[in-house]
Each structure stands twice: as structure tokens, then as C-alpha cells.
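can u do me a favor
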């Protein structure tokens, strides 16, 4: 599969001579030394990520890890100090102002953490803004704005103003606005982090529901691992501006590559997050104590088996047997793997 967005050897250094500082960082100079010796700040170091069409790529890390800096490179709100950003194979760094404006209006839309709604415009006027900017006629703008407001559950609120809506409803307007733009790529920078927990869960579910149908390429920024594991097809974890580990979320959870990732995943409710497909074994002849869906989480299987570790279940996908799961393997998967346990096994 050809990546929708590719990032190759991306560096960002903040300071007046950023390009001159790149060789120092490539030679191994760390963030603290760069600041101390050259008064420049290292933002991103050698980022290489492929974002596939129709998938949600989640970029996560603690505050200061570089995740928001990274997403702002994709539409060139920030220019890199070195490296390539390819969208559909086209180098974004080579775009002139007109082509860059088209990229931002027609290929990429953005959902912000703080909603960024225009307070003196109605909900409908906010939702249809991308098409208005593109010069579409009023009938088209109204029709598309109303359509997407209805899809995010805001039918009947078109004539309200942002101040008359709750935070969750305002963020729904932000999502409707991004969808009205009808871009292939959606950038979402901590889009749900300002919301209350229950509303946040609703918004995550809404995003996943829409994504099943629309198959957008979504780049989602978060500092919340539970959110990342729920949403991500591909997970990228940053630390101090560099990628520590990336891949399929379940694989990262089961096989953290270093102590930093181990700490990240240590407090996760593994039974609720891990899926049967991640711990099942190949199907073998024999009798089974029941069937389980390949995408069920382990918590559901524990309840189904009433906690009996002697059970062996047949794993089903679309009506066909695709594997089996021994409850003893499930129990092992619930114990976090650390560098100490891996060394003990060796």
C-alpha cells in the first residue's frame, strides 16, 4: 500500500540558524547540549513515519515531546529544518503559495483542541466555512453544512451561536466543519482533550463511527494512551522530539521496546484494551468450550468463560474459524512485559 502521507528524515530546530544546527543533531548532540552550546531548541529529530490511506495514525507523547510540532509540519504551518513531507507522493516543501493554499483548503482539514469557532457566526455558518472560503455558492454551502451537522448529531442547532452550545457540541461543529471541506486528510490536534470524560468518550465513538463509512486518512494527536489505543490503526510514540516506538497498538502494548514505553503502558487496563486477535494461536483440531469473536476484548472473554482458565475457545471472524485461544495464554497476556521479565526468560 502506498502511503498517503510520508515523513522522511524530518528535523526541526528552533532558532535563527536552524539549518546549520542540523549536522550537530545528526552527529548525536542532544537537546540539552544544543541549547547550552548553541542556544537553539531541538523540536524534532529524524522522524520517519508512513501514514496509510483510510487509517487513523495517532501520534502521542508527553507535553514537550514534539507531537503538536510534528502535525503542524504536514500543512506547513511550520517549515522543517531538514527532511521531506510527501502527500500523495508530492513534496509539500516544493509547493508555491498557491499550491500550498490549495493543499490546506482541498486536501487537508484540521480540527483544533480549542474548537476555533467564529463566535459571531451561527453554527451553520461555521460548519460551511470551508466551502465559503473555496467560493462555493450559498445553496451548496448550506446543503453541505446541514448534511454534516446532521451527521454529527446537531440537526436543529443550525441557527444557534457557539456560546449557546456545550463544549462537546462545539467540538461536533468543529468536526462537521472539517467534514464539510471534504478533504481526504483530517488533522486533529488534541481535538478531544478539552472535553469532560463522558463527552470525550462520545466524541471518540462518533469519530470511529464516521471513519467506518468515510475512510479518511486521520492524523490524531493526543497525550492520552487510552484514547490512542482506542482510536489508532497505527500508533507513533514520541519522546524529546524522536520516535521511540511505532506500529500496531496491540503489538506495542504486548511488546514495549524500552523502559520508556513500559512505563507508558504499565497502568493500562490490558483486559479492556487487548483483543482476542492479538493473543490467539493457530487453529488446531480438537474440542472447544465455546466461540469468541476475533475483535472481542479479553475482558469480554473472561466474563464469557466465568474466569475458568481451563477453557479453550475457538476464534471466529465473519462466521469462519480463524484460530483458538487458550485461557492460560490470556492470563499471560494480562501481565505486563518488562525488560526484567524478558531478560529472565532469556
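np, heres the sequence
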Amino acid at each position: 500500500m502506498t502511503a498517503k502521507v510520508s515523513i522522511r528524515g524530518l528535523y526541526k530546530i528552533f532558532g535563527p540558524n536552524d539549518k546549520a544546527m542540523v549536522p550537530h543533531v545528526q552527529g548525536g548532540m542532544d537537546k540539552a547540549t544544543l541549547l547550552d552550546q548553541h542556544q537553539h531548541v531541538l523540536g524534532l529529530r529524524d522522524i520517519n513515519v508512513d501514514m496509510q490511506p483510510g487509517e487513523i495514525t495517532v501520534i502521542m507523547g508527553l507535553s514537550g515531546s514534539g507531537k503538536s510540532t510534528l502535525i503542524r509540519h504536514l500543512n506547513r504551518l511550520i517549515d522543517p529544518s531538514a527532511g521531506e513531507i510527501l502527500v500523495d507522493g508530492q513534496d509539500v516543501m516544493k509547493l508555491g503559495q498557491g499550491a500550498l493554499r490549495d493543499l490546506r483548503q482541498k486536501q487537508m482539514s484540521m480540527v483544533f483542541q480549542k474548537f476555533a469557532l467564529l463566535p459571531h457566526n451561527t453554527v451553520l455558518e461555521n460548519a460551511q466555512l470551508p466551502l465559503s472560503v473555496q467560493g462555493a455558492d450559498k445553496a451548496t454551502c448550506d446543503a453541505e453544512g446541514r448534511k454534516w451537522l446532521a451527521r454529527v448529531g446537531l440537526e436543529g442547532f443550525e441557527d444557534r451561536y457557539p456560546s449557546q452550545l456545550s463544549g462537546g457540541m462545539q467540538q461536533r461543529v468543529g468536526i462537521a466543519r472539517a467534514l464539510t471541506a471534504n478533504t481526504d486528510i483530517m488533522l486533529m490536534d488534541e481535538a478531544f482533550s478539552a472535553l469532560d470524560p463522558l463527552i470525550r468518550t462520545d466524541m471518540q465513538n462518533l469519530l470511529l463511527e464516521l471513519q467506518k463509512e468515510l475512510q479518511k486518512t486521520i492524523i490524531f494527536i493526543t497525550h492520552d494512551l487510552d484514547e490512542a489505543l482506542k482510536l489508532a490503526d497505527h500508533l507513533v510514540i514520541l519522546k524529546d522530539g524522536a520516535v521511540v516506538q511505532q506500529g500496531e497498538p496491540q503489538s506495542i502494548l504486548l511488546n514495549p521496546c524500552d523502559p520508556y514505553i513500559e512505563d507508558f503502558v504499565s497502568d493500562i487496563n490490558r483486559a479492556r484494551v487487548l483483543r482476542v486477535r492479538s493473543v490467539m494461536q493457530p487453529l488446531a483440531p480438537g474440542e472447544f468450550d465455546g466461540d469468541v469473536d476475533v475483535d472481542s476484548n479479553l475482558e469480554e472473554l473472561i466474563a464469557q468463560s466465568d474466569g475458568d482458565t481451563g477453557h479453550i475457545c475457538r476464534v471466529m471472524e465473519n462466521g469462519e474459524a480463524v484460530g483458538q485461544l487458550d485461557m492460560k495464554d490470556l492470563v499471560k497476556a494480562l501481565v505486563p512485559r518488562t525488560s526484567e521479565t524478558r531478560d529472565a526468560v532469556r
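Residues 237 and 335 are 21 Å apart (CA to CA). hope that helps!!
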